[in-house]
Amino acid sequence: MEHIVDLSRLQFAITAIYHFLFVPLTLGLALLLAVMESVYVMSGHHIWRSMTKFWGKLFAINFAMGVATGITMEFQFGTNWAYFSHYVGDIFGVPLAIEGLMAFFLESTFVGLFLFGWDKMSKLGHLLCTWLMAIGANFSALWILIANGWMQNPVGAVFNPESMRMEIESITAVIFNPVAQAKFVHTVSAGYVTGAMFVLSISCYYLLAGKFTEFAKRSIIISSSFGLLSALSVVVLGDESGYLTGFNQKMKMAAIEAIWETEKAPAPFTLFGIPNQEKLSTDYTIKIPYLMGIIGTRSLDQEILGIKELVEISKSKIIAGLVEYEVLLRLKNKESQNKLADIQFLRENYSNIGYALLLKKYRVDILNSTQEEIDKAAWSNVPKVLPLFFSFRIMVACGVYFIVLFTLTFYWMNICRNFEKKWLLKLSLLSLPLPWLAAELGWIVAELGRQPWAIHGILPTFLGVSPVSNIEIISSIIGFVVLYTLLLVIDIFLMVKTARTGPEHFLQDLKN
Description:
By secondary structure, the chain is mainly α. It has 3 domains: 2-244 and 387-448 and 450-499; 253-297, no CATH class; 307-379, no CATH class. 72% of the residues lie in helices and 6% in strands. It is built from 19 helices and 6 strands. It has a two-stranded antiparallel sheet with strand order 1-2. Strands 3-4 form a two-stranded antiparallel sheet. α2 packs antiparallel against α5 (123-152). The chain is globular. It starts with a helix and ends with a helix. The relative contact order is 0.13. Its main location: membrane. The chain crosses the membrane at residues 16-42, 54-71, 91-116, 128-151, 189-208, 220-238, 390-412, 424-446, 473-496.
């Protein structure tokens, strides 16, 4: 069983990592295209039309690959995570259905109109389509992140003892889940940084090569401005997301910061260290006093609980959950002496059942669990600290770097109109991969930090899998890796070929 869980997680992680290579650029380029075309419509300068069409071609290549890699992910919930889909499908399926029916079709329709409607629509009509395409891309991300945010903070739903499933109670609470909203604005801002860096890097390449200079200069001016605003937004909105994590997922926060013992408020921020999960300590630490307390609690007098204390809290929740589970088992086995009373009890007391279910990893008859098994289950609530610790810090370092880089490019190339600093052009070109690195690390922090939960506090990950064989999962993993690698190679080939060719064709249209 453990191998099936690990393989199923690996399969979903692989497909998610591949898919998320395309999502940030789609979000960023879509909005940049809308801004560029708006400048064209307002100014009447046709070079902005050529810029929109050229960057739009690169957007279309990336969008097609994003669609191809994204569709399979939703099907995996039915193939590899059948019990997850059964248990929380009432809630989780709603935003995914809306994303497919409304946002995805909206975006796809207007992508087609954007690409093929240049000479068939008025300027304002085509501009409207471009903006709707950008809005559709953001709407698509919104509904996906509402679903993911609910997995992190399951609000607006209750457990139904009669159907033995989680059922939706308030769609409004699900949609306006503060964790989901914070994740949305943080994720799309990161996408805007990716789009800005993409345009900036390729434009700097043109200047270094001494070609398409006027085109490249205009692209740098708009991408450096857009990128600086986006990079600042990522930091501000990331701080909000971190604050909500500390409020709703205390164990994740403690693991990210490698806080083993609850420290006196305000807690220091560990700038560097090497966490040792076996020894429950962090070696070679460099700390900044007070900073973590201010970031995590926005106060000077509130503590951030350490992992050891949170494990003790988990033990108490497991013990309370066993009482609730015993009532649930009576109902399930139709052994209840007072069915109505038991149903009413579970409607009011079900929040700890998920913690009791952590014991299923160690024995089937969890009502007979020993203290040792309860201790093991409580400690299993601690995610892997080392990868979380470093993933978060590299991501933050990238965020600070983006602010510095976009500030430099904005000052020298936008304000001073100095495009001759080759060191800055080369630095911008070499920085092209970094937004993707930061985005993937952000995904790792969010998803690895949620473990061992598929739905935080509700459903352990190992209970959500489908009864499939190792061979079936391994075969599908191999198939996904081969297919997605092929798609990625094709995408990179087409992107590089188009970027090297440059906007010559579109600028030729301008001359004609």
